[in-house]
Amino acid sequence: MLYEDKVVGVVYTDSKISDKVLTELDIEILSTMSQQIQASVQAILLQQSIDLLQQILDDDSIQISGKKNASLLNFCH
């Protein structure tokens, strides 16, 4: 699995059946799984960036008004 041209994960498959051939359907299923995992990782990284921005805004608003602003955004994935 790649993220920003860096390997961030590997999908491994194994079969108890000897001489098992990997089919097109197997490849399609693995591809779909890796896309879902990639989307989850990207959502986590994006949420971390939003949380950092929220902390910066909170610090600024507390310094200016003495109050904390409402949340920017939270992702659920």
List the helices and strands and how they pair.
Elements: E1 2-3, E2 6-7, H1 24-65
Antiparallel strand pairs: 1-2
Structural features, described:
There is one protein chain. The chain has 77 residues and is mainly alpha-helical. The chain has a domain at 38-63. Helices cover 55% and strands 5% of the residues. It has one helix and two strands. It has one helix at 24-65, and strands at 2-3, 6-7. Strands 1-2 form a two-stranded antiparallel ribbon. A hairpin with a 2-residue loop joins strand 1 (2-3) and strand 2. The chain is rod-shaped. The mean pLDDT is 78.
- The pLDDT mean sits at 78
As a percent range, the share of strand residues is: 5-15%
Order of helices and strands: EEH
Overall spatial form: rod-shaped
How many strands, which pairing sense, and closed or not: the largest β-sheet?
2 strands, antiparallel
Spatial strand order of the main sheet: 1-2
List the uncertain runs: none
Number of strands: 2
Question: Structural class of the helix and strand makeup?
Answer: mainly alpha
Query: What is the end-to-end distance?
Result: 18 Å
* Radius of gyration based on Cα positions: 21 Å
Count the helices. How many? 1
The helix content, as a percent range, equals 40-55%
Q: What's a quick, concise take on this entry?
A:
With 77 residues, the protein is mostly helical.
List the main descriptive attributes of the protein structure presented here.
77 residues; mainly alpha; 2 strands; rod-shaped
